[in-house]
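Re: folding output
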Amino acid sequence: MKLALVVPGGVDRSGEMRVIPAVLALIERLSRGHEVHVFALHQEAVADSWKLAGATIHNVGDGWTHLRGLVAIRAEHRRGPFGMVQAIFSGPCGLIAVAAAKLLRVPCTVHVTGGELVALRDIGYGGRLSWKGRLRERLALRGADAVTATSAPVIELLHALGIRAQRVPLGVDLRKWPPLAPRPRHEGPARLVHIASLNRVKDQATLLHALARLAKTGVEFEMDIVGTDTLQGAIAGLVHELGLDHRVRFLGFKTQRELRPVVESADLLVMSSRHEAGPFVLLEAAVAGVPTVGTTVGHIAEWAPSAALAVPVGNPERLADAIHTLLADEALRLRVARAAQCRALSEDADYTARMFETLYQRLAGGFGR
């Protein structure tokens, strides 16, 4: 089957910088049995194409993105007809995918895996902040022949909107990120890691206030924060204000190869997000034998309490208490780590590809009847 995948980006020609690892893993696996063309809306400013992970990447480029995306998909369809159009993320990707599929008279699926369905007005985040955003989501989700989502909480949001959806987690590529058994803690300060861009939805302010509370209890720890700073140093300023300078290190962006030893050295992944469909880093940490404490979002919510510890959003006191709980009880920490790894291994990148391929076959078999 010839497949058209519509993505916002995450498919940089380097294969390492500005990529979405789960999306690359899916593309690579689909390309083994299908002819895959990926239409990236905003990877680069200028339209271009290149090969990556066995697929052809068509970068749409800036300006009139919706129209240019449709034109690019239609042009490739004329060279050889697509059997399926798939959007990874709803929003503009979903709308373009649905419009293209209707135009070409082929089936279409939309996968929701971001903030498309939320409206966090105080920080200006979410696909449903405006009437235009709400209309776009309505058209994309109701126009798709099938809707999938990364985790159970996102499925619940879809159901609340009257959209039937199937859960399809975006799993880890175990060849590139191999499993490592959970390990006992070493002597010395606990090693904590937080992996996310510094932005309002990841809510690093709550994370740092939790760490300040943890420090006051006498717990010795070090925190590595991995991710690009989009807040112009505000989080680093808060670290200094809270007296955490000697406990918190900012490592900046890391490629997957650079990130792996950071995760392996950690005793605990800590996430403080106000919204997540995943996060994918929870799966990566689990595969590497590291358990997670975080807010009640995405996979953290659906894995708790056996495979993750979840606390309310925006509650540094509860987050600090949960971190302390796992650090103070080594048997519990290892038990949670093993349960998390079991779940992540059972829903790896191969599982994701099989789920999507089964869906494609079902839709293709019944389309037009």
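--- second protein (sequence, then structure) ---
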Amino acid sequence: MSEQAAESKPRYFEDFTVGSVYEFGSITVTEPEIIAFARQFDPQAMHTDPVAAARGATGGLIASGWHTIALMMRMYADGFLPSNGLPAPGVDEVRWLKPVRPGDTLRMRVTIKEARTSQSKPDRGIIRPFSEVLNQRDEVVLTVLPINLVRRRPA
């Protein structure tokens, strides 16, 4: 499904089938953005000081994992979440697999792993979309396993 298709209309629980794969998004990460985010939220030298980062374990400036998650959330909201969505109850798993560096261009791949109707609220369903963020080399840099509540199609 393209990013445009995801944004064009509301989607319902019945539109998400186990095994479906969605690919979307494109965000290029810049050095100033990495530093600004880290100065505010994760002030470690590997994220805020290119010179110190080059001498350190990361071999250069890298984005905070929390910055990467924020970028993922932007792409997820723009390209995947239904416009008629509901609040999410949480995320079960987050893994940072590779560093994100200045100049990396990120995109997403989401695979529906589970889809079931809610036992307590039959007007909605629960989906478990395994979400991957990939860089321009098709390396997976982040995985997230969220839980999303989605409205069921009105009768």
